[in-house]
Write a structure and sequence with these properties.
Rossmann fold, homotetramer, alpha/beta, Dihydrodipicolinate Reductase, domain 2, 13 strands, 351 residues
Amino acid sequence: MPRVQLIGATGYGGLGMIELLLAHPEFEIASLIARDDAGRRIDEVYQHLIDRCDLTVQAPDDDIIGSDCDIVVFATPDGVSQGYASALADAGVRFLDYSGDFRFGDSAAYGRYAAAHPSIADGSHKSEALFDRSQFGIPELYADKIADSPITGNPGCFAVGIILGLAPLFTDDMIVDGTVTVDGLTGSSGAGKKPAPLQHFSHLNDNVVPYRVFAHQHVVEAQETLGSLSGGPASLHFVPHLLGTTRGILSTMHAALTKTATRDDLLARYREFYADHPFVRVLDTPSTLKGTAGSNYCDISLETTPDGKRVVVMASIDNLMKGQSGNALQNLNVMFGYDQRAGLDRPPLYP
Amino acid sequence: MPRVQLIGATGYGGLGMIELLLAHPEFEIASLIARDDAGRRIDEVYQHLIDRCDLTVQAPDDDIIGSDCDIVVFATPDGVSQGYASALADAGVRFLDYSGDFRFGDSAAYGRYAAAHPSIADGSHKSEALFDRSQFGIPELYADKIADSPITGNPGCFAVGIILGLAPLFTDDMIVDGTVTVDGLTGSSGAGKKPAPLQHFSHLNDNVVPYRVFAHQHVVEAQETLGSLSGGPASLHFVPHLLGTTRGILSTMHAALTKTATRDDLLARYREFYADHPFVRVLDTPSTLKGTAGSNYCDISLETTPDGKRVVVMASIDNLMKGQSGNALQNLNVMFGYDQRAGLDRPPLYP
Amino acid sequence: MPRVQLIGATGYGGLGMIELLLAHPEFEIASLIARDDAGRRIDEVYQHLIDRCDLTVQAPDDDIIGSDCDIVVFATPDGVSQGYASALADAGVRFLDYSGDFRFGDSAAYGRYAAAHPSIADGSHKSEALFDRSQFGIPELYADKIADSPITGNPGCFAVGIILGLAPLFTDDMIVDGTVTVDGLTGSSGAGKKPAPLQHFSHLNDNVVPYRVFAHQHVVEAQETLGSLSGGPASLHFVPHLLGTTRGILSTMHAALTKTATRDDLLARYREFYADHPFVRVLDTPSTLKGTAGSNYCDISLETTPDGKRVVVMASIDNLMKGQSGNALQNLNVMFGYDQRAGLDRPPLYP
Amino acid sequence: MPRVQLIGATGYGGLGMIELLLAHPEFEIASLIARDDAGRRIDEVYQHLIDRCDLTVQAPDDDIIGSDCDIVVFATPDGVSQGYASALADAGVRFLDYSGDFRFGDSAAYGRYAAAHPSIADGSHKSEALFDRSQFGIPELYADKIADSPITGNPGCFAVGIILGLAPLFTDDMIVDGTVTVDGLTGSSGAGKKPAPLQHFSHLNDNVVPYRVFAHQHVVEAQETLGSLSGGPASLHFVPHLLGTTRGILSTMHAALTKTATRDDLLARYREFYADHPFVRVLDTPSTLKGTAGSNYCDISLETTPDGKRVVVMASIDNLMKGQSGNALQNLNVMFGYDQRAGLDRPPLYP
């Protein structure tokens, strides 16, 4: 069984990966590593894991990173994996990173991302030489490349829904550039487990809070990816909104079309586009936030205007699954040649 | 004291008006009328009114409608007030209607609205002759006309935020027609108190559900009003979303601008436009749903793209206050010559 | 593979069983039967099942009930299974029932239950002769009997937490009779999918609503079971509270002790009592509602007063899992000789 | 107009008092004082106050405390007011304190409270000499004493519901000592505005979390008060539960009765007991959390067992109103001779 070393094991992203690995038929957990809570058992950190996992969290000492495992998963913030990347590459250890460190194939694109990121001080990167050995991890678009890649950059949560929601239209050059608006609605868990004023219950409950208006960093990878599909520019006008709910992202995406189309035309095209992709479902009725909760699905729906000149696409994901850990495990499945569904074939939790 | 007869007293819209009238320094309640719950005391229907209001709900018999009062408020669905309108007009009794029956100045516009409305069977109207004696009730735009009007058509909840949020831009011809997209996020209370699958707790809790995509009737009155401000067409591409929260509407509105502008330019213009209007607040930071809850405020904020060619405007209201009963009372204040703030000068309930 | 016929397939209880059976290594679904939605595909009724289950719901015609299957599961309200029970017994078809029809071993106990039930008109029962062939389905207490029983009466949701939470104390005669108070807190999903005023979102959101105070029917089976453990009377003073959340029941149970005990004494005894039961976890810190959400666990914690004379026990379950479908599948596993964990070995969904 | 100096102005408790004072016909705000956010305008700290209050928060310098005002309100944690108390007493300035510093008439009782409090290091108090000049602030019980008291100790949020809910029974010696159990359910806002793991949205949403089981400090003042009403001991077995909601406390209180009584007997007695108290409502149906939200009401309901030997009392308050700022203003009204309802006569916000 391939052994997975998990770094950043005690955040929500690490937690999700632990739970998925425990249920996976092929992988096993090699070690749990985190700066916070090192020395504690994971079921002390997360009591719902009692009787399920009693591994002890280890500190991220240099000599442990990458040792005794077949792959490393960095469930860590921007800037962490790039510090270990060269050593891992030299040792021939593959890794997947949750952050933006290895989502971009070149320095210019990374620089645009870094400039938009509120917690990246400058655009420098410690391992730019590895950009051409890394692959952006959208398995619906890049499975072949992910399969062989030593490094996979797992996408940002908002980017997943936006890219999957618009990929068929950009691929077909159906979008009038500059007309795309995206209103993203996200649950609170994307911000992680650290208490903060925006995630304080009394503030967020029953609330909707737009933030980083036109300035969220995830839009950069979405623009890069969609632009590469169309072969032209792809500008997105993106407004994220924080919701008083725990899980889920619903992205509502409007655009003008380069040629008229009916709803049925587009639904047929989407269904063709995603025919071989088990985690994208194209629905006849509007996607709902709860329709994907707890699952790895991306539920896509759409509507056109009566004149066929405009479209709105709605994409729902669970931000901690298809928007993070689930997509990461899907990438691991691809990297190790397993069925993409392995360990991920579960329904949404409804009601 | 002017005496208000309230029809549809036992719905959420009626309830809101009861509470506001009880706290108003000038108005008094003449009678509470409703088909449902007739014969019961209002504090049996709504127990939170115990010790506050013990009036008995009366059935809507023809001889009681309009009698012994100075104004009638119809907190009723579409189609109700138009049946009583002629008799009231003949008797010289003014009225305000919550529904779309008297929001439109002409039959063509009403017909467009009726065609979009899911529960209006045809576009016929029983009192079209009174259209030219009615006034659409946005007091920030039409206070002078409302003051003298025998009939006020209180706006739809979504329309309030959209109209106030975009009025300065349409007035100044700043909007490129056809580019406006609106994603509206609404709490559940707009659907009223009648149990229904979409408002079933287990379904709606933690959920976001887009509905009537590009097909909500409130967009018609918004288009009519904004078009009249600009003197041209005003097409809105509107997607309402039902949220798992009780109160509030946040409307996020994107548009391309006819001439470039900075955020500061537009904020200054908005502050000038609403300088004399006590219930519109122009904020420096994004409007939040909870920032207006329980109050009659409309909180507006905005952002432009770096190139100054596009804008997003965010408007927050409490759908049961500025989106319904609060705006209705504001109209009553105007109709009777009181300060618009009378009975409405309360802060949002935070946290 | 044993084939399961599911009656009442389109309610929340039926839905839960469908999802569990789909993921089970041994069982397969023979047929989905329901009065509502007969003729529709189950993934039209519940869209989150798209790509997961496309069976068509069949009407409950007499000739289909019990045919072509190895066991029947009635996910139906009180009074349904008793009408089919004799025919199934005659045909030698085993069944499990979610309702109270077969939770009681004798007519007197059933009569007490029926008298407390708001929707059972009288205490008569169509198949009392089968009472001695049925078994109350708490697998932690009665696995041996369930294994051989032709009929299993799955417990009421509140009863599960109360019984598991108090069973060690009643077994050891530690409870002073008449001193037990239970405050039960339940999510809305226990009331099913049918819209109703108590489950209307605008009413229930942010609310807590006590109901059927001292009068909930689930207390009867808890009293019968706990009394049989102690060999004496077991009276419970039970107040259920409806919460503004979808899933989960937290039962807080106070009692005076017949002999003093420390917290450590009792924790040790509970851990011994449940040592061989994989779904009961005895925690060192207070049980939380979310700590079991989506899983089949019952999380128990407790505290004593400093003088050792009183105890409070807190038990958390997911009302739709250990409180309903999960416990039902656990019973099916026992009835067919599988590991109790088969198809149920999943973590809570956290956060 | 009496001028109120508010210390701790930027916490939720201070915020509530600001809003109430702004709406009060008699009081005016003299100054807002807080260590956090000193130098900022209050409508920068709380944006929903824009256009309502633009006072600047001042630092708590010694020379400002108690100057230029008619009364000081300490909306501060335990230990703050006792440091200023002697100076204020010497200067003849009355004050009201939200904390436990002046809730107790003697050192022994304060010591019991301090011992139970998780953030009071020892039981020493800087101003014990003032205990006999202070009054515990339950206006329904002690209005005459509050009216003349130089110091009022506003009660803890849980204590308000427990004391009002049980006062008639303890007054009448109806309670069998040692049998009272209280399960208290509280919204998150009682913990204030400081982000913390228990109040982190992703953790608390949809959750119920028991805490400080049998060990919450508010029980001490409830026991002292109820014991003084009965003239005997009053022991309460209290388990607080944190809910995933913002506002409200519902306390469910069970007890054995010294003499049998029917529900009607007790309701009549409660109504007599609270006849002259405008903020206590005795209901015929169970109290609900939302039934008091945003108001100063305490809604009490009860049920007895069929044998008349036991009772459960349910009391609902808004923890930030009757549980804190609303009760505090009610006390100020009493201290200055105004109608208790002044500035507080508002309905709950429903739905």
